[in-house]
Amino acid sequence: MKPDLVVWSRPTKTCIVWELTAPLEENIVRRRSDKLAKHLRELTDNVNDGWELNIVCGEVGAKGWIPPSYVKDLRRTFGFSKTQVSRLADDSAYVARQCSYVIWLNRDNRNFEPALVAPPQ
């Protein structure tokens, strides 16, 4: 199992596991449930006493739609301001759209090797 992001704090004994998914918008609710169940099954047995584990699934639709749960999770889990969340959501939507477009362009390319796409500055 390889989560996309793991953040921990020894002083507060808190661990945050962030799993990012980019399903089609129609599948976001189901994919969120699948990812949470998977991580709950695999991680909760390995948590040491006294540690708090937060499992967060950040979903961004493949066409760039940001569900309300994404914004709530960023605010609640990481304490980002409304401005920071807005910027991050906009950048995430942009990257999801760009990646989906590149994948679609290369749908028949057997030698396709994806590259990172940076959000606009």
List keywords for this structure.
121 residues; three-stranded mixed sheet; 42% helix; 17% strand; globular; alpha+beta
Report the β-strand fraction as a percent range: 15-25%
What class, by secondary structure content? alpha+beta
Q: In order across it, which strands form the biggest sheet?
A: 1-2-3
Report the radius of gyration as a whole number of Å.
16 Å
Biggest sheet details: 3 strands, mixed
Total E-strand runs = 3
Mean pLDDT metric = 81
Count of helical stretches:
3
Shape: globular
What is the CA–CA distance across the termini?
A: 33 Å
Total number of domains: 1
The helix-strand sequence is EEHEHH
Helix content estimate: 40-55%
**Poorly predicted ranges (pLDDT <50, ≥5 residues)?**
none
Would you give an account of this structure?
Strand 1 and strand 2 form a beta hairpin. The chain is built from 3 helices and 3 strands, in the order E-E-H-E-H-H. About 15% of the residues are buried. It has one domain. It has helices at about 30-45, 70-80, 80-105, and strands at about 5-10, 15-20, 50-60. Strands 1-2-3 form a 3-stranded mixed sheet, sandwiched between helices. Helix 2 crosses helix 3. It is globular, with a radius of gyration of 16 Å. Helices cover about 40% and strands about 15% of the residues. The mean pLDDT is about 80. It is an alpha+beta fold and about 120 residues long.
